[in-house]
Amino acid sequence: MIQTDLSFIAIDAEAKTDENQQFVKMLKTLDGIVVDEKVAQLNTVIEPQIDCTSCGNCCKTLMINVEPAEADVLAEHLAISRAVFDERYLEKSEHSDRMLIDTMPCHFLEENSCTVYPYRFAGCREFPALDRPFFTKRLFTVFMHYGRCPIIYNVVERLKDTFAFQV
To answer: Which residue, of 39, 54, 90, 148, has the fewest CB within 10 Å?
Structure first.
């Protein structure tokens, strides 16, 4: 059964902190290519069963990096200058040349839907990135989002079954 209740997922994630730390250790001992294949297979089955617009939690809780070219495209779509776009929507990182959407939830989230969906940023398009390689190199990020994203939560829980993980 697919779990989509955000309250349940958040509580269960907290309760499984130690278990997940052990699971991370186990995953790091496995062949990364095999893990990537299993994650991709699970994601292919699970992701279509979850309606992200019934959740929108990623857009409510994540800081997204914005590349200058992405900001240019969205500013043009919104018919505003890049300077106005930056002032309204972006915050320059103190530690890099990257810019971030400066508020949560995202300015462009309305009723759990992205109002600029065709123009959304790469970080938004890629999330939750379970179809990307090197899953075992991204475990910190995966588990950072495990308690907030039903797709990640369900894929990880099924992955535990796939690898017969036991506490």
So the answer is: 54
